[in-house]
Amino acid sequence: MVTLNVNGKNEEMDVSPEMPLLWALRDRLNLTGTKYGCGRAMCGACTVHVDGEAIRSCSIMVGTVAGGKKKITTIEGASGKVAAAVINAWQKLDVVQCGYCQSGQIMSAITLLSKNSKPTDTDIDLGMEGNICRCGTYVRIRQAIHQAAKSLA
Amino acid sequence: MASMIQPKARRYLPGLLLTAVLLMVSATAAQAQTSTADSLAAWQKVSSVLTHPRCLNCHQPNVPKQGDNRQIHVPLVVRGPAGHGVGAMTCGSCHNASNNPTSRTPGAPHWHLAPASMNWEGLSDRELCLMLKDPKRNGKRTPEALVTHMANDGLVLWGWEAGAGRESVPMPHKEFVDHLKVWVAGGTACPK
Ligand code: FES
Ligand code: FES
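Above: inputs. Below: predicted complex with FE2/S2 (inorganic) cluster.
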């Protein structure tokens, strides 16, 4: 039995410690806002937070974040000033195309802005490098991050 | 100083001094038995491990490499201020403390890029040797501390348990450490 602290709540489940966190979130907890893209840590669709750091939940194993001390946050639980600014900018600029990559993009953008309140284009490109968008919304993602940064200043 | 030592401790002092002298003599004897030529020969074995992709891929200036073909890490990740990446792209974003059999990302404790001062890429054998024994560029390690580090550190040991799709260091770990000890005992000799 493992305990995962997800979106502020301790959840117990009988799964292997080697199971990708993504399966625990989607299949056990029904938190389907986090998406499955590649399963190989290559696309970022599965990005969630562990203690505020962006992680690829398809690649981080349940055992790595189990025990209840590490705080896991999914797109469903994203909250706070930075999250609100990011989501607001995303809506204003209509960033989303098909949407599949976007929960991961938003989670990564929140981490980026939490560490760097005034990112340059290069900071954004490097800091968001792990999040791929097959619809090519990169230009709007960049703009939205700049806008969120401005609104937080 | 001797007057500050308690009487009981004073009783043990000659024995302690004798042990210390014996240890120094035996260390010097071990060093004397190991020639510079032995040390140099051992270095060639050590260097063959250090330049294996499992070691060299993360002893890079700014961007790690990956795979046996030593390609630039995909997705691109850069060193950042602490050698752990930047923004939402850190080592811990994808790497666990052990290999992940599902996503196949390699993993070991404190997975990260070696400090910039320890970039081994593009060095000649001599340059690598000089760097390895330079405390300014080897994490302030004495030769003995280097042996301890390479014998025990979890991230170093991963090179011998690299997981599916990657070649582990072919020389057995114990053999590598034995060569390292000979290199040290013979005075950390470096090729010309
Ligand atoms: S699904 Fe996790 S990075 Fe692609
Ligand atoms: S919006 Fe379609 S994949 Fe990014």
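Residues 40-185 of chain B form one domain.
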